[in-house]
# Entry
Amino acid sequence: MAVARSMRRTSPISLVLAALLAFGFICFMLSPSAPSASSASASSQQRQENAAEHPLSPPTKPFFKSQPVRSDGYKAAPPVVHYDLNSLTNTPDSIANGERVLILTPLARFYQGYWDNIEKLTYPHELISLGFIAPKTREGNAAVAALEKAIAKTQSGPIDNRFASISILRQDFEPPLKSQNEKARHAMSAQKERRQSMSRARNSLVFTTLGPGTSWVLWLDSDIVETPATLIQDLTGFDQPVIVPNCFQRYYDSSKKKWDVRPYDYNSWVDSQTAQNLAANMGPDEILLEGYAEMPTYRTLMAHLPDMKKLDPKKMLALDGVGGTALLVKADVHRDGAMFPAFPFFHLVETEGFAKMARRLGYEVIGLPDYFVYHYNE
Amino acid sequence: MAVARSMRRTSPISLVLAALLAFGFICFMLSPSAPSASSASASSQQRQENAAEHPLSPPTKPFFKSQPVRSDGYKAAPPVVHYDLNSLTNTPDSIANGERVLILTPLARFYQGYWDNIEKLTYPHELISLGFIAPKTREGNAAVAALEKAIAKTQSGPIDNRFASISILRQDFEPPLKSQNEKARHAMSAQKERRQSMSRARNSLVFTTLGPGTSWVLWLDSDIVETPATLIQDLTGFDQPVIVPNCFQRYYDSSKKKWDVRPYDYNSWVDSQTAQNLAANMGPDEILLEGYAEMPTYRTLMAHLPDMKKLDPKKMLALDGVGGTALLVKADVHRDGAMFPAFPFFHLVETEGFAKMARRLGYEVIGLPDYFVYHYNE
# Structure
């Protein structure tokens, strides 16, 4: 009950500011008579028109441009416009099928490396919408300000770099920790509260931004600063309901005097009997956490699996828990109800609880031990 | 595991058709030079402009109407447009605060009585968006066709009757029961499968249609044919996170030779020790169902509480389970992650599981034993 009470203090979450940015392509949509610049080929014009039907605003074209005027002076109501989503697929051939991807990022801090990395993604940007949620703290304000600056640059830059649409949501509850200092954030005692708060942020984001045109949701943390440029093609290519790459970190090994990599995210794992026994003896509101010496689970951690001498980026592994630093989900899995439990769900919360829930809904959860994304090194 | 397999056959749910209808007000938005009819007062013009920012399409106004043209002939990217949702509230004074309501209806059959009833709701229609989801069956097709006919009439009728926006989603999985015959639908053996399928439909609907501007979600089944015209004002007036009226049914009592009412929905209840003991001895995939003689739970059923001689429509009762025939939810409760579990959640599914989940998230669940809505009598 103490948990319920402490959670209620932050409830109801309400979004106090949704800054909806829709740049670039959309203005072309409604100005068919604008002078066509020489660089705008027929095909890029076509892509601009597609971009306007982005998933966050399905009815941007809900009417014909010229409506007949009725006898009473009103323009007549437009006829029923059907958005035929028979082609709403999620397939290995995602680009050819024009599948829209929604990248969702809980914004703790803004890293230029994060933005530079998503700007370099080679999946067609007119098929990518971005959604952010940031806390209403000084740090959150600073992150949003920096993000908006980066957005303004990209969205007024070359057409091919511009994203279909961008939404920024602001949560009105305080995050449980004032400091985003890494040590404080990872202290085991603070983890439960922190991850329950993060669950609420993730749920607000996906419930609010998922539209009828979204095929895939890519969860990408704001401190992921390096991925392959083909990340979306690669991950959609596996055609799995839920798939998670391995999140590592680059660091300078001062003993060997060279840069090396090390595991960062320990939340992707295969369950163990030890962990299940621990859970069986827990109270209903206690949770299991991974990556803490105080609570050895003996789960098989994906972070420890890669053999750096013999990597196979296509290798797949069925998982029971996932981390959310980078996580691709078919939109249908969310539509079926899979979300990030802010309450202990089989003694799991947030992304680990999400994996359990996806499996309860009958979906497989897959990890890619030898496919890497990299976390910022604080 | 058998359950997981049988559920996977219907997965992944994908929406094969989203017919997005946006009528009426929107066309006025983008035609400021249209001749103003004498009946369009300044205030109704204002309301029409508001209506265009409906929750399903936040970026309908993402640009200024006239963009400067850059030297290269492109119109300049519009500046960042902030949709300031500081005013996104959910309060007892919902109309004065212009709070948007999303009415969500899983469409099994179309009843003219359902449509006539929502058309009579006195909550300002420009603040109401409607969302439907229908199965891809012959019955579903017929229901959608009838619905579209009703929509066309209302949305081209008097301005005050028109709704802000309407979305129709089609699910591509077969409902578990071909027949919507009442007896077949209620057979206990079919209930688990039916309600898991209904959970998926409800989740698809809320994940896809909830937008950043939505304050309240009113779940209203397609066979609810009579409510007070002030339903939304009345329910929002209680200012509760989750609130459910009592669902009854009118019938002709042939012995007494007069019309009378009787309870219909038994899913709103206060838990009992008997039910908890039953649950404690169940396997992880078994569920409790209410309203079946084969499984007496001795829960306190809201359906049985009203004393018809002494009604108090303001009387509130804390509940553990709710039915979904009519159910008002603050949008923030969904944004926090509360959904309709398609898997046994504390041995509960669908709306009853939703109530449990809302409570796990720290929200109260309230019933109104003496406030009635009426179900169609088959």
User: Anything to note?
Assistant: Chain B is about 30% helix and 20% strand. The longest helix of chain B spans residues 188-209. The first strand of chain B starts at residue 15 and ends at 21.
